[in-house]
Amino acid sequence: MILGFGNGTGDRLETDANEAAVKGRGALANRHGAKRPGSVQPMTETVSPPAAGTPAALDGERRQATVLFADMEGYTALAEKPGEEDTFALMQPILGRIVETVAAHGGTTQDMAGDGVMALFGAPHAIEDAPLRACRAALEVHRVVAELGAQIEARHGLTPRFRVGINTGPVVIGAMGANQRTEIRALGDTVNLAARLEGLAEPGTVLLSAAAHSLVEGYAETTDLGEREVKGKSQAIPVFRLEGLKEGVTRFDVSLSRGLTALIGRRRELEDLEAVWQEAQNGQTCVFNLVGEAGIGKSRLVHEFCARREREGAYLLRGHCVQSGNAGAFHPWAEVVRTSFRIAEGEAEASAATKLRRGIEVLGADAGKDVPYLLSLLGYAVAGDDFTKENAEVAGIRTRDLLTTLLHERCAASPVLLAMEDLQ
């Protein structure tokens, strides 16, 4: 059984099952769970994404935003030695990659001043999970700089390292300047504190304010550094160091870790899901699409349904789609493969290959031929002509075929429940 769910429009929860599987069973429920007449809809329907945020007014507009400052260690002394041309050649590729990284995670670069970058997430365009996106961008900035390090060391005799500070809060964004030059800028204490945090950070680290930390808590691994004196602040402020991000954590996972209240008013929707599951146990391939406004209770409903199946011993696979970063179409399937074969994020390639080989052999597939494609799917660098940019399309087709084959083989052993979140 394949269960897909994501955000839609309206104030009701829509539960559409495929016609072949349930022969007309379907339900439309309002926010309070009351039954409404409904019909099964074709699975080719799409949900329009929410409209993007609009730019701030030119005369200044108050916005909630996350501000990121990144600055290179020892730039002033460093720029004095090689001369202007060499300094430009040094910084141009670094800043170019940082700007690309910010944009990839939904941010906007507001300023570049020689050795540093100021970026905004959530303004001038509103985006979802702005603090979390800023954290992802900050960690990737360090990875990008490290990747360029060997090349820069060989050419310029130095290893670049950056400090990053992140703060979340209100900013005023609008047009600054007049006549010949006008820019859209963000101002306020939120911006100032982000800059101060960057100044406090050790090279290669990311510091978070308490406000930013509170919004990524549960998603991020952090270290509490206690209170620090900050220039311009009358009192010391709490500071946190970002160590990394937890993979595959959703908003509902964070809520679950804090405890849930009793589920009320979703009996009919659960009955619809139970009916489709019964069809799946009888050998049908069933698809169930769950659509509703954000916060209406889709994740909780799916959690309750999946928990029942796990207690029955069903084989559960889960994946979720993300909007930010460089995640592609295969991202949720990479998550499915990791959980299926018990491969941790950052696990050594040799260990991951061993787990994949054993699992594929159990399913009766060709491990020698298939393992490299799954390793590539998980982000490992795989050698061979099949994994070059020129053959990316062929590798993608082969990976899709392989995932389909493995899923079929697993379904032959026992009923499988595959849940995909945030399909919008």
Give a short overview.
The protein is an alpha+beta fold and 424 residues long. It contains 13 helices and 15 strands. The chain has helices spanning 19-22, 75-80, 84-104, 130-156, 189-200, 210-216, 251-258, 267-281, 298-311, 331-341, 349-363, 367-377, 392-413; strands spanning 2-7, 12-17, 27-30, 35-36, 61-72, 108-112, 116-121, 162-178, 181-187, 206-209, 220-228, 237-245, 287-292, 315-320, 416-421.
How big is the Rg? 25 Å
H/E order of the elements? EEHEEEHHEEHEEHEHEEHHEHEHHHHE
Individual helix count: 13
For the secondary structure, the number of strands is 15
Largest sheet: 8 strands, mixed
Helix coverage percent of residues? 40-55%
Domains (count):
2
Overview of the molecule:
This protein has about 425 residues and is of the alpha+beta class. It has 13 helices and 15 strands. The strands form two sheets. Strands 5, 6, 7, 8, 9, 10, 11 and 12 form an eight-stranded mixed sheet that branches. A seven-stranded mixed sheet has the order 4-3-2-13-1-15-14. A hairpin with a 2-residue loop joins strand 8 (about 160-180) and strand 9 (about 180-185). The longest helix is centred in the middle third of the chain and has 27 residues, at about 130-155. The protein is globular. Mean pLDDT is about 75; it is low at about 20-55.
